[in-house]
Structure formats: C-alpha cells, structure tokens
Amino acid sequence: MLPKPLQRRQWAAGMSDGDAANERTRLLVNPVSNTPNIPTAHSDDYVNPYANPVPKKTDEQSALNRILQETAANVIDVGALDSHNLEQHEYMDRSKAYAKRIEVIGVQIPDHPPCLLKDIPAPERVLAGEGLPQQDREMVTDMMNSAVTALSEIQVEHKEDLVVPFLS
Amino acid sequence: MERNLEKTMDNVTNVEGVIGCILADRQGLCLGAKGSASGQSAGLIAAIADEVAKLEPESNAPIIALESDNRQCIIQRQGPIVGAIYKAISP
What we know:
- Chain A: This is Ragulator complex protein LAMTOR1.
- Chain A: InterPro entries: LAMTOR1/MEH1.
- The complex is a heterodimer.
- Chain A is 58% helix and 0% strand.
- Chain A is mainly alpha-helical.
- Chain B has one domain (2-88): Dynein light chain 2a, cytoplasmic (Beta-Lactamase, 2-Layer Sandwich), CATH 3.30.450.30.
C-alpha cells in the first residue's frame, strides 16, 4: 500500500494525462515513452507484485544467513567437534591404542559376568508360539505335589542305638 | 527319610525326554538333583521362580519355561519347594 501523499500525487498526475486515475495508474511518468500510462501500468501491475518482493526476500534471506553465520562463529559446538566419520580401521587403531595404554597403566577392567539369559532377534515369533504343552505342565505340577508331600513326610529314622557301649 | 523325595525325582527323570530334575527349598538350598541337573543351579532356579512370581503376585505360582536351542528347563514353585525339570527338545 502506498503512502497517502503519493496517492494524491498520483491522482493529480493521472488527471493531467486526461485519463481516469485509479489505483493502477503509474506513480511516475515514464521518461522514455510519453504514451498513455494505462497499458504499461497494467503490465507493471502484473509484474510488480512478483518483481518487488523477490529482492526483498533475498535481502531478508541474506540477513538471516548473516545472523546465522555470526551466531555459528560465536558458538563452540562440542557435539560437532568430533563428528567426522570414523572408518572401520580407525576404530581398530584406536581400540588397539587404548588397550595398549591401559596395559601400560596396569588397570584391571572388571569383566561383566556372562548373562544367564540373552536377547533373541525376533521375540514376537517366540511370544506368539505355542505355550507349554499340557503334558509338561501336568508333569511339573505332579512332581511338585509329590515333592511337597515327600518333604512333609521326612522324619528321622531310627536305625541304630544312639547310646553305644564304650570300652565294654 | 528322604526316600520319597528321591522316588519323586526318579519318577520324573524316567519320563521320556526328561534329562534331569532338581528340587530346592525357597532359599535355594538344593534338596536333591538327578540326571544332568547340577546342584549348583538350585539357587538360580529358586531366584528365578521368586522373581517371576513377582510379575503377577495375585496369580498362582507360575510355570516358567526357559528354552535354549536343544534344551528346555521348566520351573515351578509350590509351597516350600522349587522344582525344575530339564528336557531335551528336538529342533
């Protein structure tokens, strides 16, 4: 939107040309061609909305980029310091070097005890599989029942005399 | 004395496919082991039964089945005893 004083001037210029002034008439008269402004005004009108914002946008973009660069220059990104990709052999070299250092110092790294259970690659296959067969369940339950009974029946059996003749 | 306990374990070990069994008390003390079961695993078995029972405290004692490629270990606790049966499974 044009500022108001300009609009008024435009209206005056339009009147002097003898054309009906409207919001589409040009603000400044083309110095090269003195032809009536209406057609060029129309074509300009068509171009302007697109032509004008583009440089504006790049200005904004470059300003933003500048701010970004300035900020990046002032920030130490610790995470990105060591971000270059390590090759496989680099890993090996480093692990060897570290192992040597540890050997030199003589530090004992505690070994993790092997786990009783371990992960399996596709748990859903096992989880969706059939449960324990009825036969096995009965077997273990029967064993436990008879074991509980047997345990409750445990008692000391008298086999030989507790008091034995000594030096008879 | 513990004759019945021994008999119970013998009966189970004689079942086809069973390669061993073990009985332990709730603290993990081995009461007896037959077949390929080692008395040293009594503590582990009691601990596993204990931990698994915590998953659903409201339910009855669960039957736990541990499986490897060729063996299966079925664990259950009942009252004062934890028992485990080792089975060979065909792949």
